[in-house]
Amino acid sequence: MKLSEVIGHQEIKDRLAELLTADRLPHAMMILGPEGSGGLPLALAIAQNLVCERRSGKKEDDGGLFAATSMFGDPAPVVNTEPLSDACGECPACVKAAKFIHPDIHYTFPVVTMEGKNAPPVSADYITQWRKALTENPYMSAVDWLQQLTDKNKQGNITVNECHEIIKRITLKSYESKYKVQIIWMAEYLREAGNTLLKVIEEPPDDTIFILVVENIEQVLNTIISRTQLVKLPAIEDVDLASYLLTQFEITDKIALRIARISDGNINAAVEYAGGAEHQSDALLREWLSLCLRIKAAQAPEPSVKLFEFVENIAKIGRENQKIFLKYFLWFLRESNLIAMGLTSEKLEGSELGFAQKLATVLDPETTDRLNKLINKVHYYIERNTNPKIIFMSTSFKIASILKKEEVVYDSYDT
Ligand SMILES: [Zn+2]
Known about the structure:
Layout: H1 10-21, E1 28-32, H2 39-51, H3 59-62, H4 92-98, E2 105-108, H5 127-136, H6 142-149, H7 160-171, E3 180-185, H8 198-202, E4 208-214, H9 222-225, E5 229-232, H10 238-248, H11 253-262, H12 267-275, H13 281-293, H14 305-316, H15 319-340, H16 350-360, H17 365-383, H18 388-403
Parallel strand pairs: 1-4, 1-5, 2-3, 3-4
Helix pairs in contact: 2-4, 10-11, 11-12, 13-15, 13-18, 14-18, 15-16, 15-17, 17-18
């Protein structure tokens, strides 16, 4: 991956490019960013930049790539010797890096014990799956990754055995490039095993670069944190996320920006929304809430024909789209609540803002809290394949009760 292929984060990429050009990259970095912000892609881009033959000016020592003075006395090809500010993407090293098979780029990531194998697992056991997963989505979450390894609910781990493998391989000489790069993705999974690495992270062998990628720094040993240079990655900015979506989906600028706004800078959420029914979520929500408000007595509800139709329709859009719709509801509630508290929502505009202002008039902290809990619970049940017709119908009555500040009638899906 090239730096230019990493979505957003221009300032950070520029700074890293400068450090790479000056050959002053710290020997141990910790990239810290929330899920879907691109910590791993950034690590992959740094690694590729470190091994790229044109970027590192390999031409100086062996004449390498551009030394081909013609045997027949033709003038030598004109070569641009300006240092590149990004990996070239074309040299043999870049090609290997992009396929995740460069021998000097090493990957460590959480794994689970293999079926029928007692030995503690190491990352190499899963390297084929790893390459495939990275090819499909370098922005994947740890949960997505672990689900590809096992359908059982096993916790992932970076084992002490893997730490010993790391020490072994970085002590060896590099194969093809000047640098050896060790990426440790989701370094929080090291847990106590991280102690094994303290010495090599503090004083790695020459030309060895450690890049740790972390989402939850509080789960990383302090002794590791203090030995690395922190690169803090914020969530991807709305405009960057929106322009990425426009390259991937046939949607309008307006929809792309809207999706970006509700995704909280998480590329995976944005892609899911853009590929799903998110475009209609605001209309659906408006319809649903107004139907709920028309339920007269929530304690002894009588669903209207329209509510029946609504529930039938929403049952048809499928589980993934229902989840997106509920996520949208939660996001919209949060934004409306800001308005209810006398603040402004920076993410809403037009008719959506008008609707939020109306909803805000009936929101108080308790109502918001009850709705929030309810919708989270519905999301939980939808995820677990509960019958959508039953759950959306009974949720409609609950929403009516909450908005009318009544006691909610409890039923089977309350816990
Ligand atoms: Zn290259």
